[in-house]
Amino acid sequence: MTRFAAQPLVAVLGPTNTGKTHLAVERMCGHSSGLLGFPLRLLAREVYDRVVAIKGAESVALVTGEEKILPDKARWFLTTAESMPLDKEFAFVGLDEAQLGADPERGHIFTDRLLRARGREETMILGSEALRPMLRALTPDAEIITRPRFSTLTYAGPAKLSRLPKRSVVVAFSAEEVYAVAEMLRRLRGGAAVVMGSLSPRTRNAQVAMFQAGEVDYLVATDAIGMGLNMDVAHVAFASLRKFDGRKSRRLTVSEMAQIAGRAGRHQRDGTFGTLSLEGPSAQFEDEEVLAIEEHRFPPIDHLYWRDGKPDLGSIDGLIAALERRPSSQVLRAAPQAIDLAVLKRLADESWVRDRARSPSAVRRLWDACGLPDFRKTGAEPHSRLVGRVFKHLSEGDLHLPVPWFADELARLDTTQGDVETLADRLAAVRTWAYIAHRPDWLAEPEHWAARTRTLEEKLSDALHQRLTQRFVDRRTSVLMRDLGAKGADLLPMKVEADGSVTVDGESIGILIGFRFKADPRARHGDMKRLMAAAERRLGEELGKRARALAVDEDSGFSLATDAGRPVALFWQGDVVARLTKGKDLLSPRIELHRALDALTPADRQAVVRRLQVWLDDQMARHLRPLIDISAAARDPAQPAAIRALLAPLAQAGGLMPRRALEEVLTAVERDMRGPLNKLGLRIGTLDVFMPALIKPEAARWRVALAAAQDGVVMPGLPVIGAVSAPTPAEVATCHAFVLAGFRPLGAQMLRVDQVERLARNAHDARSGRAAFTPDAALATSLGLMPPSFAQLMLALGFRSADQGWVWKGKRPPAPAKKKPVKERPGNAFGALAGLRL
């Protein structure tokens, strides 16, 4: 036998984290039957689950106001203090947090259980060391045992939310303050779980499970956590040190501070406590309070609140008198008027209530109805109206509540629509009806309605948990914060889906397009840096795989991007990987990798550049072979000097130049030299020297793109594919691009140079010497050339307008243009065209 057998009444006192509750559970389970009373429904449920794991569900009962699990063979009962069945005999009886007898609102309940609840073989009172004087005065035969705290509790001072250590609980004293802190934690640290005494066990357990599993590193709670709820907490931060106790706003007592702060640290792990630094006035501990909490020294309790636990039920007046009777002990004080007594007094003023409560059984039924808790905190007056309606039904007819009324009230609450506050209010209302359903004699089929209310409470609890999570947990931010702090094997799993979606621990952070990571556009601005940092440190392996795939890909995977207004770029698999910049000449652009490829290793970067260069060389050989040939011929020392003098500027200009710019060079080209030029595909036209193969759409696109890269400008607009004429663009750069693409300006219009030569030949075929003639305008019209533009062309060809039509005058050397000097840009196609008079 242990030391407890010789003394049936034992008080185990000490601060939090001393294992008092664990000891009581062990002692209870060692007896043939037992009863443990707790201050909270949540705590009763938590210990119930532990005892079920030991004894089995068929042997353990849970009894609270709104929930009853009563197996037929139950021998171990876990209850709230209010629901302790004192009319049953148990081998073991225990009361947890007995110091709550000093609480003005519920103290009389705990004092009554302290004085009257006894086990046949053993009774255990659990509480704070401050309760010792009361036990000496009220239970002098009790053996008092003090247990030390398992771990050290240290003051850590104030901390900002952004600097709050992980595994912290922030304690606030109103729902509004809890929600406000949780919202700030969502923005700064990814979110927080929320625990309040008003939550159902199902919602509370789901929220705590998130915290315990590490899905969130913070929990925001009311002082409900001070009543023994066990969680893995490292630090407790007080958002405030004041609370409203139902009558006034007051500062917490040192004992209350210690009860809450003591949640930090578990078993032999040390914990810390402090305050939260918020904008405006912040909570601050006094030095004396810190010392008392750290050393677990608190002022002794000098009184407990008392109310007759077995009042006279002979009449309403006798009941009220019994409930208001003052205690005889000097350490007991009459309890302040609780809401059940306030409701009883209000109903006692109703004549119909007195008419129906004339017998002891009716008075008991009235008192039971007054015990209906005000879960919605509506106050005595509104609550008394509900209690009055309940008693009216219980005192007439079959003495049961009408099923249609009860069912209608449940149906009205059976919806999961609404925000957190709406669902919490609805859940509080369901608790009222659950309390009613668990009364054994208030409904005709209590088991059926208890099941209905339990199902509805679970439904609303799940919805409330979902809303709380949606509102106060940004899982992506939480995942990112954990990922940024992880190393090596602790790194969270990252996955890149087939469509490029990137997830970390199942949470989407963005999409990988080629080598470019784009953060999720739905992310908040403050998370963008975290998203990019996560991608930078985690996507290196995936980018390397893509680089190696690019290095061996077929030519069909690459393309040249020439979107107007954007730099000339090289694409792979539909996304940019590099851009072309200035090289040593038009046909030798430099490949500059996109910054997204900076994360690659040097070897992978070199492999990518080599593959892109091979593709670029192949494409230029395919589309710009004539230009490559004349460029090579211009450097060939075997060619005559006159040929090289003609081909060199032509190659730099992209294979097209006005004839007048080359007139001096052309005079040096003998007729027998024209054969090799013809073999190269060069055509010396009336107005232009060009290569017909290079004015095809794809060749023109490549030449304009290479010229833009060489000049360091964005890609200008291009003529419509297949067009032979077009309006003259207003932008100079676009106009130069049209010229390089093979178009000649003719006033408000431009005409492709091969069609210019066609019209020139047609005009010369139509004339007879220098006689006036009228050219056939049908061909010009079919090419889309307007009369003013056609006139510009005729003038450029050497014709002059006459009364009878046009007269051949022959071409004259152009007069020097009176214009501002143009800065030369040698080695550049746009530069060669810059001096062209449009």
Notes on the structure:
This protein is α/β, with parallel strands linked by helices and 838 residues long. It has 6 domains: 3-146, Rossmann fold (3-Layer(aba) Sandwich); 153-295, 3-Layer(aba) Sandwich (Rossmann fold); 338-472, no CATH class; 476-538, no CATH class; 549-623, no CATH class; 625-833, no CATH class. Helix 10 (339-348) packs across helix 13 and helix 19 (540-551) packs parallel to helix 20. The longest helix has 27 residues, at 446-472.
By DSSP, the count of extended strands is 34
Biggest beta-sheet profile: 8 strands, mixed
Overall spatial form: elongated
Give the termini separation. Answer: 114 Å
Features:
about 850 residues; alpha/beta; Rossmann fold; 6 domains; 30 helices; 34 strands; elongated
SSE arrangement:
Layout lengths: L8 E5 L6 H10 L4 E5 L2 H15 L4 E4 L4 E2 L6 E5 L11 E4 L11 H10 L5 E6 L4 H7 L4 E4 L6 E8 L7 E4 L3 H15 L3 E3 L5 H12 L5 E4 L13 E4 L3 E3 L4 E3 L2 H8 L9 E7 L9 H9 L8 E3 L9 H8 L8 E3 L4 H10 L2 H6 L3 H11 L9 H15 L8 H11 L6 H18 L8 H27 L2 H10 L9 E3 L4 E4 L2 E7 L2 E4 L8 H11 L1 H12 L6 E4 L7 E4 L2 E7 L8 E4 L8 H22 L1 H10 L6 H12 L3 E3 L4 H4 L7 H6 L3 E2 L3 E3 L6 H15 L13 E3 L4 H9 L2 E4 L2 E4 H14 L11 H5 L4 H11 L1 E4 L2 E4 L20 H5 L5
Parallel strand pairs: 1-7, 1-8, 2-5, 2-6, 3-5, 6-7, 9-16, 10-12, 10-13, 11-12, 13-16, 17-18
Antiparallel strand pairs: 3-4, 14-15, 19-20, 20-21, 21-22, 23-24, 24-25, 25-26, 27-29, 28-29, 30-32, 31-32, 33-34
Helix pairs in contact: 6-16, 7-8, 9-10, 10-13, 12-13, 14-15, 15-16, 17-18, 19-20, 21-22
